[in-house]
């Protein structure tokens, strides 16, 4: 378990430019169909089910955000097509990657599962950033090239002590394999205390 925060804060604040119903384009890595990963998340969520102040992420919306592209209404469709093509060329040069997911990370806005090796998916992230830079530009919300790949298990919806979460996870499950064979471009909105999206493109590695 990584170092723990003393207090939790509300995750559900609005990033600059975000508003209800406004769609944002992102690249996600999705664990769909990988039952070991889904079972691991369920086991963590079972431990957290009685803890106040958390929104557990439904299985169908589990994801690993890899690249923020930008707001859909600011990007011409032709550039989105060029982005997908550019990402496709770069990811085709990478073999599918297997990492372990399960490194527990409790941060001030939620509970997540990181990966080992920590930099194991950097080639995927790098390919996406290069494709974005050449087609739509790297969006200001995407931050710097530093990236902490993780699957969020729960988001904090209140300010309060972290101790109940830490206690609930004192005997956390182990890690399981995660195979990354594709990246998904999605148009995502925030719907209350939930991120949901429409899939736009799937690009395979290899």
TrEMBL record:
List the Gene3D superfamilies.
Cyclic phosphodiesterase (3.90.1140.10)
Q: Which domain of life is it from?
A: Bacteria
- InterPro entries given in the database record: Cyclic_Pdiesterase
- The name this protein carries in UniProt is 2'-5' RNA ligase family protein
What species is this protein from? Actinomadura luteofluorescens
What is this organism's lineage? Bacteria, Bacillati, Actinomycetota, Actinomycetes, Streptosporangiales
């Amino acid at each position: 378990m990584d170092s723990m925060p003393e207090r939790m804060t509300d995750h559900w604040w609005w990033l600059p430019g975000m508003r209800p119903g406004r769609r944002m384009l992102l690249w996600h890595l999705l664990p769909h169909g990988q039952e070991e990963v889904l079972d691991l998340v369920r086991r963590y969520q079972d431990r957290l089910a009685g803890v106040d102040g958390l929104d557990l992420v439904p299985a169908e919306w589990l994801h690993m955000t890899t690249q923020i592209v930008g707001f859909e209404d600011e990007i011409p469709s032709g550039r989105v097509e060029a982005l997908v093509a550019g990402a496709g060329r770069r990811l085709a040069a990478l073999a599918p990657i297997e990492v372990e997911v399960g490194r527990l990370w409790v941060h001030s806005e939620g509970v997540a599962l990181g990966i080992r090796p920590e930099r194991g998916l950097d080639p995927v992230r790098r390919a996406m950033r290069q494709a974005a830079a050449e087609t739509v530009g790297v969006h200001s919300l995407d931050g710097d090239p530093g990236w902490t790949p993780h699957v969020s298990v729960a988001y904090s919806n209140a300010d309060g002590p972290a101790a109940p979460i830490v206690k609930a996870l004192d005997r956390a499950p182990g890690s399981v394999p995660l195979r990354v064979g594709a990246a998904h471009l999605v148009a995502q909105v925030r719907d209350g205390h939930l991120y949901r999206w429409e899939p736009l493109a799937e690009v395979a590695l290899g």
